[in-house]
Amino acid sequence: MPPTPDLVADQDTAPRPMRRRGDLVFSSTALGAGIIILIVLAAVTLFLIVESIPAFTANPDETQFLNGEPFWQYVWPFVFGTLWASVIALVVATPLAIGIALFISHYAPRRLASALGYVIDLLAAIPSVVYGLWGALVFSQILQPFYVWLNENFGWIPFFAGAVSPGGRTILTASLVLAVMILPIMTAITREVFLQTPVLHEEAALALGATRWEMIRMAVFPFARGGMVSGAMLGLGRALGETMAVTMVLSATGAVTFQVLNSSNPTPIPANIALNFGEAYGDGVNVLIATGLILFIVTFAVNAIARWVVNRRAEFSGAN
C-alpha cells in the first residue's frame, strides 16, 4: 500500500538528527585514514613496478647478480625458499596456536589463562634481531643433536636425507624460529574468536550430553573456522616478509631442495635482499627491488586467498 500524502509530508518535514562535532571529526578521521592507506599502498606498488622495469629489460650478461641468467631463473630459487620456509613455519605454528588458544579460552583457570595469555602476547614484543641471535647461537646448537637423530632414524624420508649440517643452521631451524615469531599473533586472533562463540551454543551442546571436547568440536570450531583461517594467513604473511631472523639463522646458499637438515639451504627473498643490498649498484639494485616486487605479489595473493576463504566460511557460521 503506497504511503498517504500526509505521511510523506510528515517525513519530509521531520527534523533530521543533528550530527555532533565529535561524530563529524571521527568519521572524517576514519575516512582520511582509509584514503591514506590506499595512497601509501598505491605509492609502494608504483615504486616497485617502476624500479623493477630495468631488471626485466636489462642484459643479463651485464647485470649484477644475474650472471648471465634471465631474471626469472634468478628469482625462482628465492621464491621457493620463501614459500618453503613459511609453509614449514605455518605447519608447526598452526596446531600450537589453536591448542594454546583453546587451553586459554576453555580449559585453564582464569588466573592461569590471564598469565599465559600475557606471556604469549609478550612474545610479539621481542625484536626479530633477538630472535635471530637466539636462533643462530642457542636454538641451532640445541637442535643439532636432534637433527642427527632424525637423520639416523628417519633418513629414508626425503626431507631428512643427506648430510646433517654440523652447526644446525638449516632451513628447518629458521622455520622453527619463524614459527615462534608468528605464534603470538595467531594465538591472539584464535583465542578471541574462541571467546566469541555464543554461550548458548556451548550450553546447548553440553545439555544434550556432549563432553567438553565434543562441545568444542561441534560448537566452537564451526563458529571459529573463519577466524582460525584468518589468523593462519596473517601469520603466513608475517613469515613471508620476515628478514633479520632468517638472515641471521640461515646459512643461505640459494639451493632448491626439500631437504631440511643439510647445509645446502634455500634462501628466502627477504634474506637475499638483506644480504646483497649493501653491495648492490646500478641495475643490481633494480634486480633486488624486482625480487621485492615478487614478494609483494606473493604476499598480496596469500591475503587475497585468505579473504576469499573467510568470506566463503562466513556463509555458514555457528552464530547463524
UniProtKB/TrEMBL annotation:
Cell compartment(s), UniProt: Cell membrane
Keyword Membrane: yes
Cellular component annotations (GO), alphabetically ordered: plasma membrane
GO biological process: phosphate ion transport
Pfam families the UniProt entry points to: BPD_transp_1 (PF00528)
InterPro entries reported for this sequence: MetI-like, MetI-like_sf, Phosphate_PstC, Phosphate_Transport_Permease
Transmembrane annotation, as ranges: 24-50, 74-103, 115-134, 171-190, 243-261, 287-310
GO molecular function, one term: phosphate transmembrane transporter activity
Lipid bilayer topology: Multi-pass membrane protein
ABC transmembrane type-1 domain: residues covered: 79-306
Keywords, in A-Z order: Cell membrane, Membrane, Phosphate transport, Transmembrane, Transmembrane helix, Transport
Function: Part of the binding-protein-dependent transport system for phosphate; probably responsible for the translocation of the substrate across the membrane.
PANTHER family tied to this protein: PHOSPHATE TRANSPORT SYSTEM PERMEASE PROTEIN PST (PTHR30425), PHOSPHATE TRANSPORT SYSTEM PERMEASE PROTEIN PSTC (PTHR30425:SF1)
Family annotation (NCBIfam families): phosphate_pstC (TIGR02138)
Similarity comment text for this entry: Belongs to the binding-protein-dependent transport system permease family. CysTW subfamily.
Name of the protein: Phosphate transport system permease protein
Organism: Microbacterium oleivorans
Phylogenetic classification of the source organism: Bacteria, Bacillati, Actinomycetota, Actinomycetes, Micrococcales
